Amino acid sequence: MNYYKEHAKHYVGVDCVIFGLHEGKLNILLIKRRMMPGKGQWSLMGGFLEEEESLDDAAKRVLHQLTGLEDVYMEQVGTFGAIDRDPGARVISVAYCALLNFDEQDHQRVTDNDACWIPLDDMPELFFDHPLIVEKALEHLRLQIHRKPLVFQFLPELFTLSQLQSVYEAILGDKLDKRNFRKRILDIYSLEKTDKIDKSGSKRGATLYKLRIED
Q1: pTM of the predicted protein model
Q2: Three-state DSSP state, 210
Q3: How far are the Cα atoms of 128, 134, 188, 197 from residue 86, in angstroms, in the given order?
């Protein structure tokens, strides 16, 4: 029985803001739309919620279809429901943010979906309200990297503090003071100082650290 037949019905969709770190820069995964409205224009990867699927499952499906990846960090970053946000119909979109390792995803699948990685600084004009969604997702990501060990997926098991700082700077889009960064990062994470030295950057070398996994 339909208890709500007197109420208006709307489409519900998910949009995925997929970030990746490549060659020291934060990139975003974008597609060129294959259908109207906005055919041929750049947009985020998204889709409609299916009948027997949760929002989280829909976002995971969209991500997997585009990148071939599963079990990727994803979180909701907001709901977007402006009346005129989609010229095709009244669509309410729930946005998700993912941060993944560029080298681990299926590049051929990306190409097959008419998608490509673009440095965030060179992001083209996007269709719908996707610029706003990207802005909100970026704010969310930059807050989360201070709370969760997301950045360590981009580092080897043993790393220098300079390498760690470089990853942070790429995601935050800003240069950080070396002394303040090191003090803060050692307060946030349990890092173990090893007796190994990385001499690739200088004769003196730099101490290698590893993330201590707490039981």
Answers
A1: 0.88
A2: strand
A3: 6, 16, 41, 55
6-41 burial, b at 16+ Cβ within 10 Å, e below that, comes to: eeeeeebbbbbbbbbbeeeebbbbbbbbeeeebeee
Q: Do 191 and 212 form a contact (C-beta atoms < 8 A)? A: yes
Mean pLDDT over each residue of the chain, to the nearest integer: 88
Nearest 5°: phi and psi at 86?
-125, 115
Three-state secondary-structure class, residue 152:
helix
* Helix 130-144 / helix 161-172 crossing angle, nearest 10 deg: 150
* Tokens standing for residue 126: 């996007």
Please write the tens of the pLDDT for every residue from 59-77.
Answer: 999 888 877 777 777 899 9
User: Do residues 73 and 19 lie in contact, with contact meaning Cβ atoms separated by under 8 Å?
Assistant: no
Q: Are 36 and 88 in contact (CB under 8 A)?
A: yes
Distance (Å, whole) CA 170 – CA 120: 10
Element spanning 141, H or E: helix 130-144
Coil, strand or helix at 76: strand
197 DSSP β-pair partners: 207
First to last CA, the chain: 50
Of 61, 98, 62, 91, residue with least CA distance to 77: 98
